[in-house]
Write a structure and sequence with these properties.
By secondary structure, the chain is mainly alpha-helical. It contains 22 helices and no strands.
Length: 400
């Protein structure tokens, strides 16, 4: 925006003449407003009507209506010079004087250099010799700095982070008494937020630690008040990573029952969706069904009682009387009750490993443990082909 021709209110011909002559007894007759006076002072210097060296003398000859400290005067001068530098209608001579005025104000210690560096364009700083690198290079550097500050994500590394923040967090979570009041929950939430901000902790790792402590204290309801401070979508991802850890070949430990209960409780309280966590579980339904079909076929083939029973009702039309008598003897079925019970016990024992290795069945047990029949029924429908009730633990949950 161009500046209209300025009508001087205080820098009249007489006052400019007195300042040029260096009259030490000259004073402005009345207190003047700071901004208007400084604006007229800069304007007369840019037009060449008053030398730069008379600027300090002009400031000594005036009393301001509104008191301004030296720093406030410098800030106002920097604002005025910045506005003059943005006037595209200034002639070449005046524009050069603006550059020289800015440089002189810095050299005379009237305006700190940082004020101009904060407010002026890169080209103006380069022309006024306030920066040592070219304007284009400074712009590129500014873009890189802004990108790093605003868009670049911090890569957290436990080896480089301060462990004091996590130590305080774990201590806090392990000392939470059960049955705390709402005020205690709010205070705990505030402390956790303060620890995240003060020690620059990774919020996802903090959420992971909160879930870990909740897993160790499933009866402490105060953790249910801590979970909403974190994004809902992150809960299923963090729990999914926990389940994926136990899916590794080098990990021989089964998934802890507390993890199943924690997951089931979060699903029951609508913190996560059952489908979002089910997608992380192994084995997948197709693989589990194939494995169960192979197991069932193996049981049928190895059971002599069933193979004899399968022959009932078969008739050989080409057989003679003697053959019929022999076949009739072979077709006699004798069922040993104790042998059948032993076979069933062996089958249950053989399937016990399936319960340890099947995370969907473990989650089903978790729903039964937290009395969530709705989601348990959903998994019963999905896994009905596997006959989940064959497992003693699931039966106990159903009976309970």
């Amino acid at each position: 925006m161009s500046l209209s021709p300025l009508e001087y209110l205080y820098f009249t011909e007489d006052s400019i003449k007195e300042l040029k002559n260096g009259n030490t007894s000259f004073k402005f007759s009345q207190p003047l407003p700071t901004l208007r006076f400084l604006y007229e002072l800069c304007w007369v210097m840019v037009r060449g009507e008053l030398p730069f060296q008379k600027c300090k003398m002009a400031l000594e000859c005036v009393e301001f209506v509104d008191y301004a400290s030296q720093e406030e005067l410098g800030s106002s001068l920097a604002d005025i010079v910045t506005q003059l530098a943005q006037d595209l209608s200034l002639p070449g001579e005046n524009r050069q004087r603006v550059n020289k005025l800015a440089k002189w104000l810095v050299e005379s210690a009237l305006v700190p250099l940082r004020f101009f560096q904060e407010r002026c364009e890169e080209e103006f700083l380069w022309e006024s010799e306030m920066i040592k690198i070219k304007a284009a290079d400074l712009k590129s550097k500014e873009v890189r700095v802004n990108t790093r500050l605003l868009y670049q994500q911090t890569k957290f590394n436990l080896l480089r982070e301060e462990s004091e923040g996590y130590a305080k967090l774990v201590t806090l979570l392990c000392q939470i008494p059960e049955g705390s009041t709402r005020n205690a929950s709010a205070a705990t939430v505030g402390i956790i937020k303060s620890l995240i901000g003060h020690f620059d902790l990774d919020p996802n790792r903090v959420f992971d630690i909160v879930l870990e402590c909740f897993e160790r204290q499933p009866g402490n309801s105060i953790f249910l008040d801590l979970i909403p401070i974190f994004p809902k979508s992150h809960a299923s991802q963090i729990l999914g990573f926990k389940f994926q850890y136990y899916q590794r070949l080098e990990v021989n430990d089964p998934v802890p029952s507390e993890l199943y209960q924690l997951t089931a409780l979060l699903v029951k309280r609508d913190f996560i969706d059952v489908d979002s966590i089910y997608a992380h579980l192994l084995p997948k339904e197709g693989d589990a069904f194939d494995h169960y079909n192979a197991f069932s076929a193996k049981r049928l083939n190895e059971a002599p009682t069933f193979s004899s029973a399968n022959k009932i009702g078969r008739i050989n039309l080409a057989a003679t009387g003697k053959d019929l008598m022999d076949e009739e003897k072979q077709g006699d079925v004798t069922v040993d009750l104790y042998a059948a019970l032993d076979m069933e016990t062996e089958a249950v024992a053989e399937r016990s490993s399936e319960l340890e290795n099947s995370q969907p069945l473990g989650l089903l047990m978790g729903f039964l443990e937290v009395d969530d029949w709705y989601h348990a029924h959903v998994l019963f429908d999905r896994l009905s082909h596997l006959n989940p009730a064959e497992h003693v633990q699931i039966c106990d949950g159903l009976f309970r």
